[in-house]
């Protein structure tokens, strides 16, 4: 069928209402669409079978992870051009990146002509999902048992794989790209500066106790102990993270000041702490448990203790009842992860008793960080595939590239919220001048 690509492009054009902005190559070698553009490659007609059985985003995600659909050329350009022409009704469903943009291509309900897609692909039974898709989840969302299982799906994929993507810092959250570091700033510079920024906002001093919730591979706890003299407790639900974090702590000679636990934040009972950091962890908490999260951290802080909550935020929708977790992200990246608007997060922290003193948006910083991670992954692609699987590497490349564009285009944000547990008499212990609350004696 030498006209396969042309027929597919016609279907997409019909669904979009505008010309397809990319070139398309089908499994038979046929091509259609504008030249000199990134190429969407449909390598196998099985991709269309997936889309017929699961129209929309999930079918497309499975085809991408299985390698049946690919992009040749600049992935960011391809994502951006498709996103520019997506009808507004798709944006309102909470979809992001390629999964939102290309879902128009395969949503049979949009075309209302399933027979035409069937004529191109041919009949077939539904292909099994790729192995990288999260297994069926049991029990209520965000219970201790279920949270441990879904966190393991994302984080226990191999410390060596994460080292390729994240670099030596092993920090899996937005960096802080400062002007002082100059145009040659590295990912390591940005992550070091982010950790230092958080320590300064918390005004950490020698001898204080810090709780780092969702400590990952221990970078925040180690930085705070080494450079600010604190005694840090880091908690994570990932056994693999904890193993490497403890090794890193020992190698740095910090075992007397840093403790790493495999523990849920709800199980921490040895407060009070002088400060709490939560960096890129609250996205896993879920709307149904966020008040419990805020209440728990408030309880664990002494009066006058500070919380630094570093969290991704989505834009509020006109009708919040329409929000659904992104299918691709939920099935392949962050199972049960949920994003909330910044205003809701601040309100729930205040309801727990916190006084919110400062909010800093780092949206552009996360876009730079994600692009650096994608570059690391692409540079070490063959090794990443050997360490995990081709499908897993494809999941990470797509979600990070698509997320970078979402931050660049202001569809996602990330914010550091600095809050304090005030004393019963209302004393916060914080200087009244905004720039002064981070002034402290540096320990190292």
List the helices and strands and how they pair.
Elements (H helix, E strand, L loop, with lengths): L3 H13 L6 E3 L5 E2 L6 E4 L3 H8 L3 H9 L3 E4 L2 H10 L3 H4 L5 H10 L1 H4 L2 H8 L22 H12 L3 H8 L20 H15 L7 E5 L5 H10 L2 E6 L2 H13 L6 E5 L10 E7 L10 H11 E14 L12 H7 L8 H10 L3 E7 L1 H17 L1 H7 L2 H19 L3 E9 L24
Parallel strand pairs: 1-3, 5-6, 5-8, 6-7, 8-9
Antiparallel strand pairs: 1-2, 3-4, 9-11, 10-11
Helix pairs in contact: 2-3, 2-8, 3-6, 4-6, 11-12, 14-16, 17-19, 18-19
Structural account:
Helices cover about 45% and strands about 15% of the residues. It is of the alpha/beta class and about 450 residues long. Strands 7-6-5-8-9-11-10 form a seven-stranded mixed β-sheet. A four-stranded mixed β-sheet has the order 2-1-3-4. Helix 11 (about 185-200) packs across helix 12 (about 220-230) and helix 14 (about 290-300) packs across helix 16.
CATH superfamily of the largest domain: Vaccinia Virus protein VP39
Strand line-up across the major sheet: 7-6-5-8-9-11-10
Low-pLDDT regions: 88-98, 439-444
Alpha-carbon Rg, integer: 23 Å
Written as H for each helix and E for each strand, in order along the chain, the element string is: HEEEHHEHHHHHHHHEHEHEEHEHHEHHHE
Helix content range of the residues, please? Answer: 40-55%
Q: Could you name the CATH class of the largest domain?
A: Alpha Beta
Average pLDDT for all residues: 87
Total strands: the figure is 11
Proportion of strand residues? 5-15%
For the record, the CATH architecture of the largest domain stands as: 3-Layer(aba) Sandwich
* CATH topology name of the largest domain: Rossmann fold
> What characteristic shape results from the CA principal axes?
elongated
| Structural classification | alpha/beta
Sheet having the most strands: 7 strands, mixed
Query: Domains counted in the coordinates: how many?
Result: 2
Distance between the termini: 69 Å
Tally of contiguous helical segments? 19
Domain Polyketide synthase-like methyltransferase: 161-419
Keywords: Lipid metabolism, Methyltransferase, S-adenosyl-L-methionine, Transferase
InterPro entries: CFA/CMAS, CMAS, MeTfrase_dom, SAM-dependent_MTases_sf
Family: Belongs to the CFA/CMAS family.
């Amino acid at each position: 069928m030498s006209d396969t690509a042309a027929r597919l492009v016609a279907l997409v054009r019909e669904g979009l209402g505008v010309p397809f902005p990319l070139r398309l190559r089908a499994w038979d070698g046929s091509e259609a669409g504008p030249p000199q553009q990134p190429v969407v490659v449909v390598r196998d007609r099985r991709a269309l079978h997936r889309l017929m059985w699961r129209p929309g985003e999930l079918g497309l995600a499975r085809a991408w992870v299985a390698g049946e659909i690919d992009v040749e050329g600049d992935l960011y350009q391809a994502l951006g051009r498709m996103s520019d022409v997506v009808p507004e009704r798709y944006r309102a469903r909470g979809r992001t990146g390629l999964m939102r943009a290309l879902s128009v291509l395969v949503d049979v309900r949009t075309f209302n002509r399933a027979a035409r897609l069937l004529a191109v692909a041919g009949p077939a039974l539904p292909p099994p999902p790729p192995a990288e898709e999260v297994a069926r989840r049991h029990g209520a969302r965000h219970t201790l048992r279920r949270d441990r299982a879904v966190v393991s799906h994302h984080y226990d994929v191999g410390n060596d794989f994460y080292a390729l993507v994240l670099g030596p810092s092993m920090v899996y959250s937005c960096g802080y790209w400062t002007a002082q570091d100059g145009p040659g700033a590295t990912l390591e510079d940005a992550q070091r500066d982010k950790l230092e920024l958080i320590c300064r906002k918390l005004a950490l001093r020698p001898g204080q106790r810090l709780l780092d919730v969702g400590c990952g591979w221990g970078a925040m706890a180690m930085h705070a102990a080494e450079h600010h003299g604190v005694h840090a407790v880091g908690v994570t639900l990932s056994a693999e993270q904890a193993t490497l974090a403890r090794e890193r702590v020992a190698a740095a000679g910090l075992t007397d000041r840093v403790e790493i636990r495999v523990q849920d934040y709800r199980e921490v009972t040895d407060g009070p702490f002088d400060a709490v950091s939560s960096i890129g962890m609250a996205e896993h908490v879920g709307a149904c448990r966020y008040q419990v999260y805020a209440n728990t951290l408030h309880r664990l802080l002494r009066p006058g203790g500070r919380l630094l909550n570093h969290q991704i935020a989505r834009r509020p929708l006109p009708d919040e009842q329409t929000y659904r977790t992104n299918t691709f992200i939920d099935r392949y990246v962050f199972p049960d992860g949920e994003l909330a608007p910044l205003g809701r997060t601040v309100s729930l922290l205040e309801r727990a008793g916190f006084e919110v003193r400062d909010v800093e948006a780092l949206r552009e910083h996360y876009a730079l960080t994600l692009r650096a991670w994608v570059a690391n992954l692409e540079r070490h692609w063959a090794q990443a595939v050997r360490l995990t699987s081709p499908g897993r590497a494809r999941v990470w490349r797509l979600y990070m590239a698509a997320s970078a564009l979402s931050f660049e285009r202001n569809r996602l944000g990330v914010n550091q919220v600095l809050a304090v547990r005030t004393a019963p008499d209302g004393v916060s212990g914080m200087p009244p001048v905004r720039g002064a609350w981070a002034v402290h004696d540096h320990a190292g």
